[in-house]
């Protein structure tokens, strides 16, 4: 059979069952747009190495043939509903599963974080265009509820898969940068190892007594600065050991201080050092959209011989004031390592 049939030379095309329609018919626009979606997903799948996600997208592509066929049969004697409840359930279960694999993202996401997510975002926007066509078709044809539901869930599903690849890329780059950061600090750590109190080397987590001492020193510096602060001390995994809110400090500073400490512990880096990397030209672009991550000053990891045992986060003033108070707390911690807690 030849690829070209010449039957469309006069501007018409065949619907399911053989009926002819103009190529600008809205039904043709609708199933043609679904064809675009399928092709865009195909490009994304060509870049995806994970078998699980490749199979998810392949299943979606096969279902899209059914979507196109249903659209191409509207208004004909051959029309039948082709999208089933289980097709919609598959998308919903996929979305729910992906939501459990990553933190929540806040704000708008700029497309282009990875090759995979970029192509998936194109497919997602084309799905939205297809939805608009299908919505208009409802004015003239009986469009099934499942068809509308499926295309609506599909855009959400593609968004969820795209964000997974963005998050995965961000985490991989973060790990690489953390390793570089830790490697660059090893020589300096080794130079000071003899100064560290031998009894403190056994500390694996920040204890409450030490956390309280650090917070007291931060409060002293806060009084000197003239701004009431919120001070948060966490363990190595970012879980709160102590949270101190000074009188009249801003309520919003509570959450910010906790996030600064969490970020410093989780990413093993002072929060101000993440700012440049989080910009559009940076290696960690988009990380500031990850829930609980802060990329401005006021958070510092607490280390013993290069090992993270906790973190400090301070909020309440300007970034410079927050950093000044947090750095004072960091020096207090370093003093504990060499001299113990001094009153």
TrEMBL record:
It is an enzyme of class 2 (transferase). Belongs to the Cob(I)alamin adenosyltransferase family. PANTHER family: CORRINOID ADENOSYLTRANSFERASE, CORRINOID ADENOSYLTRANSFERASE MMAB. Residues 120-147 form a coiled coil. SUPFAM superfamilies: Cobalamin adenosyltransferase-like, GlcG-like. It catalyses: 2 cob(II)yrinate a,c diamide + reduced [electron-transfer flavoprotein] + 2 ATP = 2 adenosylcob(III)yrinate a,c-diamide + 2 triphosphate + oxidized [electron-transfer flavoprotein] + 3 H(+); 2 cob(II)alamin + reduced [electron-transfer flavoprotein] + 2 ATP = 2 adenosylcob(III)alamin + 2 triphosphate + oxidized [electron-transfer flavoprotein] + 3 H(+). Transmembrane segments: none annotated. InterPro entries: CblAdoTrfase-like (IPR016030), CblAdoTrfase-like_sf (IPR036451), PduO-typ (IPR029499), PduO/GlcC-like (IPR005624), PduO/GlcC-like_sf (IPR038084). Residues 3-164 form the Cobalamin adenosyltransferase-like domain. Pfam families: Cob_adeno_trans, HbpS-like. It comes from Clostridium carboxidivorans P7. This is Corrinoid adenosyltransferase. The lineage of its organism: Bacteria, Bacillati, Bacillota, Clostridia, Eubacteriales. Keywords: ATP-binding, Cobalamin biosynthesis, Coiled coil, Nucleotide-binding, Transferase. GO terms for molecular function: ATP binding; corrinoid adenosyltransferase activity. Pathway: Cofactor biosynthesis; adenosylcobalamin biosynthesis; adenosylcobalamin from cob(II)yrinate a,c-diamide: step 2/7. Its EC number is 2.5.1.17. One of its GO terms (biological process) is cobalamin biosynthetic process. NCBIfam families: PduO_Nterm.
């Amino acid at each position: 059979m030849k690829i070209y049939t010449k039957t469309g030379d006069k501007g018409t095309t065949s619907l399911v069952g053989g009926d002819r329609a103009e190529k600008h018919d809205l039904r043709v626009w609708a199933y043609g747009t679904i064809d675009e979606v399928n092709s865009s997903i195909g490009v994304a799948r060509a870049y995806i190495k994970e078998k699980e996600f490749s199979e998810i997208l392949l299943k979606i592509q096969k279902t899209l043939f059914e979507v196109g066929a249903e659209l191409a049969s509207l208004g004909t004697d051959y029309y039948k509903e082709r999208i089933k409840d289980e097709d919609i359930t598959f998308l919903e279960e996929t979305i729910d599963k992906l939501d459990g694999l990553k933190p929540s993202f806040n704000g708008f996401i700029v497309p282009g974080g990875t090759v995979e997510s970029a192509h998936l975002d194109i497919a997602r926007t084309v799905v939205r265009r297809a939805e608009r066509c299908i919505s208009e078709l409802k004015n003239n044809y009986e469009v099934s509820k499942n068809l509308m539901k499926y295309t609506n869930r599909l855009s959400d599903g593609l968004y969820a898969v795209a964000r997974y690849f963005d998050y995965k890329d961000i985490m991989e780059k973060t790990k690489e940068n953390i390793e570089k950061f830790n490697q660059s600090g090893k020589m300096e750590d080794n130079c000071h190892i003899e100064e560290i109190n031998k009894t403190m080397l056994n500390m694996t987590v920040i204890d409450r007594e030490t956390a309280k001492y650090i917070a007291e020193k931060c409060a002293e510096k806060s009084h000197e600065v003239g701004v009431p602060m919120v001070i948060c001390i966490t363990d190595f995994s970012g879980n709160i050991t102590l949270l101190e809110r000074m009188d009249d400090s801003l309520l919003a500073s509570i959450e910010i201080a906790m996030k600064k400490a969490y970020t410093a512990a989780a990413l093993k880096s002072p929060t101000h050092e993440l700012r440049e990397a989080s910009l559009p030209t940076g290696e960690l672009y988009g990380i500031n959209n990850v829930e609980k991550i802060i990329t401005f000053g006021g958070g510092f990891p607490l280390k013993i011989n290069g090992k993270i045992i906790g973190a400090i986060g301070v909020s309440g003033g300007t970034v410079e004031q927050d950093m000044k108070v947090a750095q004072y707390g960091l020096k207090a911690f370093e003093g504990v390592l060499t001299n113990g807690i001094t009153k």
